[in-house]
Structures are given as structure tokens and as C-alpha cells.
Amino acid sequence: MTYQYILTGAEDGVGVVQLHRPDVLNALSRALMDELVEAMEAFDRDEGVRCILLTGNQRAFAAGADVREFADATVVDMYLAYRFQQWERIRKITTPLVAAVSGYALGGGCELAMLCDIIIASETARFGQPEINLGIMPGAGGTQRLTRAVGKCVAMEMVLTGRLITAREAAAAGLVNRVVPVELYLDEAKSVAREIASKAPVAVRLAKEAVLRAFDTTLEGGLDYERKCFYLLFATEDRREGVRAFLDKRSPKFTGR
Ligand code: COA
């Protein structure tokens, strides 16, 4: 499959998707989002891909929705054309997603990074929800996922003033996992992705699901769900292999079965 607005590749069990509209700071046009969802779902179906890495370029992860696309839109145009299902489809991907973020991650760009499970940021990364400056507000999870990640005060300031925060502020607030020098952020993210890809795939997917469940349910419901996933993994060959390898003092060879 060839794409116009993204670049894709895979190695060591890691599927890489790079947003590629550099002239407009990777603005998330509908066509780009179509390709992104398509590529991510294809990786999600591919048993050989055990982690997905999403990145942009050094100047921008993504500077948000493509403003030119909705400059003259009416509410009906937006309702009919703006397919938030694309975001739901990314949310439903069970393969872990690692974001490597450098430069601008604004609006939909910040929301896209937040849909990922782990975020590695370069020192030059800037996160923000500047929609308020356009007379609108976040529409792809910014008020919800940002608030869950950083708490009410930081989220309110970002959403109500549009102020961009630095990578260090983002790390202090719990929005990103860590901040590394710009020349290292992609390698660091790839290394995290490879590490995840080396684990037992079914355990990884169920563990991701269980952690995400913590945002949607009561503690009791979440614990119940966790326990069922835990029991389920005792039916896998990889559980037997993992335990046996530990006892034999060797590295496990996981097969995804
Ligand atoms: N949609 C469409 N085009 C965008 C874009 C977006 N969200 N963000 C940047 N671009 C385009 C610019 O229009 C410009 O195109 P041009 O060269 O044809 O004029 C190009 O990307 C480079 O951006 P520019 O503004 O010249 O770079 P900068 O370094 O001066 O500023 C930003 C960078 C990110 C601060 C600024 O581009 C910006 O504020 N972008 C909009 C962010 C936003 O509001 N996102 C939420 C949208 S809902």
C-alpha cells in the first residue's frame, strides 16, 4: 500500500508510521487521517507487528487539524465531514502505540500523542491545545484525555489560554514519559517500542487493555477485568515459555500463542 501523507515501515516487530506533510507542520487533514487509520489498523492486524511507533519530524509531530480545511465550514459541513470515528478507530487499536514527539504537538497533534500509550519527547517538543485562539475548542479528546493526564489546573490553563507547554513541563505534569535530547528522541522511542515488541504479544495487548480500562470504570470493575485477563493468560503457550525460561535461566522465545 502506498500513501501520500504518511511514510510507513517495519523492523524488529515494530511498525513505524511517520506523519509526512512537512510543509504544513503535519497538519492533520482528513486525507492524512484516513491514511493514518488505514496504516495503523493494517499494523494492528499484522501478527508480526507487536508495537507501533508514531512520529512526525523534528520541527513538528503535528500542528493540529488542517485549519484550511474547515476555514469556511458550517456546522452541518463539520458534522457530515469531520469523522471523529477515525479517532475512535485509533483508540480501539490493541497493539501498543509509542509516540516519538519533537517540535509542535498542538491541537489534534497533542490529542493524537495522547491516544498513544507511551510518549517520548524531545527537548524541543511543545504541547498545546490552542483551539481557543481560533474561537473553538478541542474536539478529539483534548478536554478529557489531557485532564486525566495532567489534572484540572494544568488542563484548564492549556485549554482556556492556549498556552503551549515545554517538554519539561509536560514531563513534570505527567503528560509524557520522558524527555531526551532532540538527536536521541527517535532512537529512544524505537528502543522502547522494540522492548515492548520482544514481550509476549497476547500478554502485552491484554495488559494495555486493562490499564486503559482504569479510565473507564470503577475500581471494582477494573480489578475484576484485570483478574479475568490474568487468568486468561494462563491458557497461553507464552505463559508456559516465559515461566520455563525464567526457571531455566534463559531468554524466553515468545511465539504469540
Ligand atoms: N493547519 C493548516 N496549516 C497549518 C497548520 C494547521 N493546523 N499549522 C501550521 N500550518 C501551516 C502554516 O499555515 C504555514 O503554511 P504556509 O507556509 O503555506 O503559510 C506552515 O504550516 C508553517 O507554519 P508557520 O505558521 O509559518 O510556522 P511558525 O513556526 O511561524 O508557527 C505554529 C508554528 C505551530 C505556532 C503555527 O503554525 C500555528 O499556530 N499553527 C496552528 C496551530 C493550531 O491552532 N492548531 C489547532 C488547530 S484546530
| Unreliable sequence segments | none
What is the CATH fold-level name of the largest domain? 2-enoyl-CoA Hydratase, Chain A, domain 1
CATH architecture of the largest domain: Alpha-Beta Complex
Distance between the termini: 28 Å
CATH superfamily assignment of the largest domain?
2-enoyl-CoA Hydratase, Chain A, domain 1
Count of DSSP H/I helices: 11
**Mind summarizing the main beta sheet?**
6 strands, mixed
Average pLDDT score: 96
Spell out the helices and strands N to C.
EEHEEHHEEHEEHHEHEHHHH
Rg measurement, Å: 19 Å
What would you call the structural class?
A: alpha/beta
Count all strands and give the number. 10
Q: How many independent structural domains?
A: 2
Give the percentage of residues in beta strands.
Answer: 15-25%
Helicity range: 40-55%
CATH class (first level) name of the largest domain = Alpha Beta
Shape: globular
What are the bound molecules?
coenzyme A
Describe the 3D structure:
The chain has 2 domains: 6-197, 2-enoyl-CoA Hydratase, Chain A, domain 1, CATH 3.90.226; 201-248, Lyase 2-enoyl-coa Hydratase, Chain  A, domain 2. The strands form 2 sheets. The chain has a 6-stranded mixed β-sheet, with helices on both faces. It has a 4-stranded mixed β-sheet with strand order 4-6-8-9. The chain has 11 helices and 10 strands. The mean pLDDT is 96. It is globular. The chain has 257 residues and is an alpha/beta fold. Strand 1 and strand 2 (14-19) form a beta hairpin. Helix 1 (30-45) runs parallel beside helix 3 (85-91) and helix 5 runs antiparallel to helix 6. The chain has helices at residues 30-45, 75-81, 85-91, 108-115, 142-150, 152-161, 167-173, 185-197, 201-213, 219-233, 237-248, and strands at residues 6-11, 14-19, 51-55, 60-62, 97-101, 104-106, 118-122, 126-128, 165-166, 178-180. The structure holds coenzyme A. Coenzyme A (COA) is lined by residues 24-25, 27, 63-68, 104, 106-107, 130-131, 134.
